[in-house]
Automatic annotation (TrEMBL):
GO terms for molecular function: ATP binding; ATP hydrolysis activity; transmembrane transporter activity. It comes from Deinococcus metalli. The keyword Nucleotide-binding applies. Residues 4-221 form the ABC transporter domain. This is ABC transporter ATP-binding protein.
């Protein structure tokens, strides 16, 4: 069973006369119960790939399907609907809405879907050590707390797939441990899928598969 498939993705950026080929024919499938770690040096295309798979960017070529429906080459509203229904997304920044509390951020996507799961949000926030910070605003959080709140906001509506870009960058070992446990449980206990760009050895230690990007293409290592 495939939860997400990407076939032959291309993404080019143009700045003046310069063209950057950020993705050059990338294909991949994400399956239940599989934690996939995405590695690649700076500029190899990891963030571009994750943004395309999340429907936040649109590839110039290729096709993406999520939950059996085409995500690529769709109007933004359609992509947003598919994203809310199937995906949890954690980018390098901008994951939390500043004027909402930690708890309300965790309830945003569920509310949009018409099924906010307060019990699940509370449980996840407790699991990452934010049980006492439910009513704090993002500006009042430390970097590690922000990362944990963003992970919960990505997962609280119960998506099938987590897409995360360096979720544990710049967090301490305790936070890395909490986040790794939540992600591991999401994938391996609940049978969901995750694609995570990370340099964390702890997270990589839980990976079922490691994929390497180089200059916008898969490479062996
Ligand atoms: N909006 C943009 N406009 C022009 N070029 C871009 C844009 N976004 C990314 N690029 C270029 O596309 C290539 C891939 O960038 P991307 O951010 O996907 O890499 P990355 O592997 O995520 O890097 P990092 O690990 O540093 O975050 C790089 O050469 C980058 O400079």
């Amino acid at each position: 069973m495939t939860l997400l498939s990407a076939t032959d993705l291309y993404r080019f950026y143009h700045v003046g006369d310069d063209e950057t080929r950020a993705l050059r024919g990338v294909s991949l499938e994400l399956r239940p119960g599989e934690l996939t770690v995405l590695l690649g040096s700076s500029g190899s295309g990891k963030s571009t790939l994750l943004a395309c798979l999340a429907g936040l960017d649109d590839p110039d070529g290729g096709r993406i399907e999520v939950g059996g429906e085409r995500l690529s080459r769709q109007p933004e509203a359609h992509r947003a609907r598919l994203r809310a229904a199937h995906l949890g997304v954690m980018l390098q920044s901008g994951n939390l809405i500043p004027h909402l509390t930690v708890l309300d951020n965790a309830l945003v996507t569920g509310t949009l879907l018409g099924r906010p799961d307060t019990a699940r949000a509370h449980a996840l926030l407790g699991q990452v050590g934010l049980g006492q910070r439910l009513h704090a605003y993002p500006s009042q959080l430390s970097g590690g707390e922000t990362a944990r709140a963003a992970l919960v906001a990505a997962l609280a509506h119960g998506p099938q797939i987590l897409l995360a870009d360096e979720p544990t960058a710049e967090v301490d070992a305790a936070t890395e441990g909490w986040m790794t446990d939540v992600i591991g449980e999401f994938v391996h206990t609940q049978g969901r899928a995750a694609l995570i760009a990370t340099h964390s050895l702890r997270l990589a230690g839980r990976a079922d598969r490691v994929l390497h990007l180089k200059d916008g293409r898969w490479t062996d290592a």
